[in-house]
TrEMBL record:
PROSITE patterns: CLAUDIN, PROKAR_LIPOPROTEIN. Belongs to the claudin family. Keywords: Cell junction, Cell membrane, Membrane, Tight junction, Transmembrane, Transmembrane helix. Claudins function as major constituents of the tight junction complexes that regulate the permeability of epithelia. It is found in: Cell junction, Tight junction; Cell membrane. It holds the Pfam family PMP22_Claudin. It is a multi-pass membrane protein. One of its GO terms (molecular function) is structural molecule activity. This is Claudin. The keyword Membrane applies. It comes from the Eukaryota.
Length: 220
């Protein structure tokens, strides 16, 4: 039962981490963090992301323009860029490290302690990647809500609302956090036994090393 749980937790953790990493990369580059609908022109919608703003028109389609200056951006967008890049990097490292710690990977099968440490490190990296994705998405959402209900802004002025990328980012962050937790749970559970053939090979290698050590001692 412990072996089944360990294997299922590893596969589920890696799958969720991979899904979260892909979605976090999409969230980083999608220009749909905020949406703006104009009451005066219902056929024209504006969207904003971390890297560009776009206008969607029924006749002309979507036209986007990148931000001219990084320093001219609001603080939440500047920090969000850095944190999303950090999330993408940590997520990739987490997948890479945890992949070498999986039981189904025969490389280094006899080094169980090393594989366990790699699995724990991969889980921590995936968990950190999820937090790094949730923070900027939640920050931008909080700022959007504050600006939407700001009473100092006249009612005639259009207000930015949540874009699809925010919901995608929340789902990505939660997937990465849950995937990292599952990987750590799998690493803390009991180890899977070696297959008979691999156990025999490992035992023969140990006997051979012991025999070489004894011969060396006799010669000295």
């Amino acid at each position: 039962m412990a072996l089944v749980f360990r294997t299922a937790a590893q596969l589920a953790g890696v799958s969720l981490s991979l899904l979260g990493w892909v979605l976090s990369c999409l969230t980083n580059y999608l220009p749909h963090w905020k949406n703006l609908n104009l009451d005066l022109n219902e056929m024209e919608n504006w969207t904003m992301g971390l890297w560009q703003t776009c206008v969607i028109q029924e006749e002309a389609g979507m036209q986007c323009k990148a931000f001219d200056s990084f320093l001219a951006l609001p603080a939440e967008l500047r920090i969000s860029r850095i944190l999303m890049f950090l999330s993408n990097g940590l997520g990739f490292l987490g997948l890479l490290v945890s992949g070498f710690g999986l039981d189904c990977l025969r490389i280094g099968e006899s080094q169980r302690d090393l594989k366990r440490r790699l699995l724990i490190l991969g889980g921590i990296l995936s968990w950190s990647s999820g937090i790094s994705a949730l923070v900027p998405v939640s920050w931008v959402a909080h700022t959007t809500v504050q600006e939407f209900w700001d009473e100092t802004i006249p009612d005639i002025v259009p207000r930015w609302e949540f874009g699809e990328a925010l919901f995608l980012g929340w789902f990505a962050g939660l997937s990465l956090v849950l995937g990292g937790c599952l990987l750590n749970c799998a690493a803390c559970s009991s180890h899977a036994p070696l297959a008979s053939g691999h156990y025999a090979v490992a035992q023969m290698q140990d006997d051979h090393q012991q025999l070489e050590t004894r011969n060396t001692n006799l010669k000295n």
